[in-house]
Amino acid sequence: MFKLNKRLILCLEQLFKQAFNNDVLKSTEGAIMDFNQKQLQILETAERLFAMRGFHGASVRDIAQEADVNIAMISYYFGSKERLIESIFLKRILDVKTGLDELVKDKHLAPLEKMNRLIDLFVARISERPHFCRMMVRAQATEEGIPTDLITDVKKQMYEMVKKLITEGQKKGAFVSDLDPLMLVNTIVGTTNHITISQNFLRKMWNMEQMTDEKFREHLREKVSNHLKKMFKVVLTHEP
Amino acid sequence: MFKLNKRLILCLEQLFKQAFNNDVLKSTEGAIMDFNQKQLQILETAERLFAMRGFHGASVRDIAQEADVNIAMISYYFGSKERLIESIFLKRILDVKTGLDELVKDKHLAPLEKMNRLIDLFVARISERPHFCRMMVRAQATEEGIPTDLITDVKKQMYEMVKKLITEGQKKGAFVSDLDPLMLVNTIVGTTNHITISQNFLRKMWNMEQMTDEKFREHLREKVSNHLKKMFKVVLTHEP
Amino acid sequence: MFKLNKRLILCLEQLFKQAFNNDVLKSTEGAIMDFNQKQLQILETAERLFAMRGFHGASVRDIAQEADVNIAMISYYFGSKERLIESIFLKRILDVKTGLDELVKDKHLAPLEKMNRLIDLFVARISERPHFCRMMVRAQATEEGIPTDLITDVKKQMYEMVKKLITEGQKKGAFVSDLDPLMLVNTIVGTTNHITISQNFLRKMWNMEQMTDEKFREHLREKVSNHLKKMFKVVLTHEP
Amino acid sequence: MFKLNKRLILCLEQLFKQAFNNDVLKSTEGAIMDFNQKQLQILETAERLFAMRGFHGASVRDIAQEADVNIAMISYYFGSKERLIESIFLKRILDVKTGLDELVKDKHLAPLEKMNRLIDLFVARISERPHFCRMMVRAQATEEGIPTDLITDVKKQMYEMVKKLITEGQKKGAFVSDLDPLMLVNTIVGTTNHITISQNFLRKMWNMEQMTDEKFREHLREKVSNHLKKMFKVVLTHEP
DNA sequence: CATGAATGAGTATTCATTCAT
DNA sequence: CATGAATGAATACTCATTCAT
């Protein structure tokens, strides 16, 4: 007699999440993240609008209209506006985490090379996930709502990873001794984020307004990547 | 015979701003920024709520209630919600600009010392203007609305200043030759902003949740200041 | 110890009016209708705006601004918005009544001539009091508010007068016998009013849009006057 | 793939209207004017309240409450208060136009008979559409807003029709030569309108206050019809 | 399974009026 | 005596969500 429609499943998911909320990612790791075409349309449009206008500034009406789906579909598929934004974070953050995990597991890279890879991982978001990057920035600036746990979790992992990376580098004598891993992480993430959200300003500064979005982002990515790598090399090794 | 009530004055101000919008700051430099007690209450509360919840997430109702003033007062004093947020930006950005100007005029500081002062100027916002810092981050992430011109203007000035500072340092042989001023600015601002908006996360990481807001911010400020100064010293001079 | 400011006086006036409301006009006939300059400015502006936008469509803010007086002055001088519109009606209707009285008293005019004078009296409003005419039309279309008593009163008087005029004409053999005075009054007033409020339309129809307001109204007045006089001559006397 | 919900349809309608606004009626002639029960309730209530209190005097709250529908329904169905009043005008004016068209096409009537029919057409509104008649009067007295184009259009058509009717009558020798069609139209419309909006006054004058609305309107209609027909017979033919 | 219709709570703003000065 | 400052109530409208079909 029970009808297990998508909505109920989402609801149950939520309950599980609450029950095991201290390791959010693990519990959702295996989550069935298979969305149909319409759901993907919604997610993509929502990501863009949430990024540009903020959670409250982007109405479900707008999202539905731009995604070319019925207004009721959003509540129907995701349960609520809040759970929609959660879905976006869940989806994207898993990607980030996967990237980090792979890098951690790699045993063959030199410490500096590994740091460069880490930088590239973050810088890549400038051109690949600019909307989501904006959402992350907004989310961190925000007091409430938004899946803070998820974000905290991934940030912690990242910090731990960089700490390990630096310690290893120091043990191998590749890095100088006096380094603060957390501050270094903040410099990578902060610089990357800031450049991502300031794209339009930088474009104006460099008179590149007629360049396509894609091309400009590629240009930016390379520039930032070089900047951070060079800077970190000096900072970590004291060699130019 | 003209009646110049507050509303009209605000309206005229707006017109002026539109007419001369290419140098926004200059036109408002001499603007009479004298607000009465109630207006200041509103501005402060609004700053906090806009910072935490975003423009659309903070309703005028909430602002009025928390500022303990009548709802109608906001429209009465500022004309509209949009003009309220503009007032906040105007007020705070003028402060930033003043700080920059003073630093520029100072002729007695060594290049590295001047850079350290610049870092301190930004880092100070972590403890002094955390709400406004959040607002700035949000504003830059946003597509439209918000006094983009004002922000663009102040960012340009800052960039020009750092460029000049670095060039001077290079001429004097104090700094290495291969430096990208714009990227360095982004690193300072990006790192500072990111730490400001991630305060709560860092507090958890360091198990300092029972510390007062004020104390923690002071601690953070020092930590970030040291980090950036040390990093910049190495990057600019290649000396540890 | 009593302070008899203007407001109180107006209030007392109101009380008197309620007490003797069955002959409104008489009680206000001797009313001190002496307004100072600012009051006259308000009355004139209010008349225009009420005429064009209706009672609720014209805000006291607008009226005060256009009349170049402080907003609080309207409440201060007239007590309320409602009492402001009443003052306008009172003032203007007394004029109408005075005109009618004078015509009634005139014993030397032939019946048809007297009717022509009556027509002219009404038609004159097209060019002289177009705003007030519009207000009257609105007032009659309205269910509530507005000094209906005043209007009813003046309309009754007018009807009585026309009835007397026609009866006299019939007695003297100047007019045909089968005439309905009330319907004839309605035709004069209805036609005049309709033309007054349709001025803009007629202007377009006749391609006189570049003519000044004043000139056009004069032109209209003559045209309507002739039309009504000619029509009434035939109707009253059956002679072309 | 386009979503054509009611709101969008209304929006498109509006765009069309703007694009072809010089022949408003034609573009809406085939417009699907099929309203559901709730929409009709709203339209009828709105007509009454707009008639009695004017556009600004009748709030959407009042309309919704009296029509026994949710407040949000009005925006939902009609888009805005302005578009609600437009819908009323559109609906009713199309009826008027249809009536006129049918009369024009009729080839078998004598000139005077045709004029009588025209009078009946207008007089009928006294008893059938008293509210809308009031709205029309208000609309014409108003400076701006309200679908002036629609009204201008129908007025022009009416004028043209009467002109043709009179010219035909003159050609056939049925009417006298010296006649001003536009003034005659104004007399019919003005008299009819004035009587419609003065109903309550006339009721008092004739001591018919206990009569039902319906009965009184019927009585009035006959009286006005006879008056105008008799008057026009004399005016047009110079025969009693 | 998907959706058009519907809704109560909420939005920013304007209103006429009051009151302390 | 006149007015700038202030306000509670009302304004039209939009919101995310629900529900019958």
UniProtKB/TrEMBL annotation, chains A, B, C, D:
Keyword Lipoprotein: no
PROSITE patterns hit by this protein: HTH_TETR_1, HTH_TETR_2
Taxonomy, superkingdom: Bacteria
GO molecular function term, any single one: DNA binding
UniProt cross-references to Pfam families, sorted A to Z: TetR_C_29 (PF17938), TetR_N (PF00440)
Keyword DNA-binding: yes
Residues in HTH tetR-type domain copies: 36-96
DNA-binding region coordinates: 59-78
Keywords of the record: DNA-binding
Protein name: TetR family transcriptional regulator
Source organism: Chitinophaga japonensis (Flexibacter japonensis)
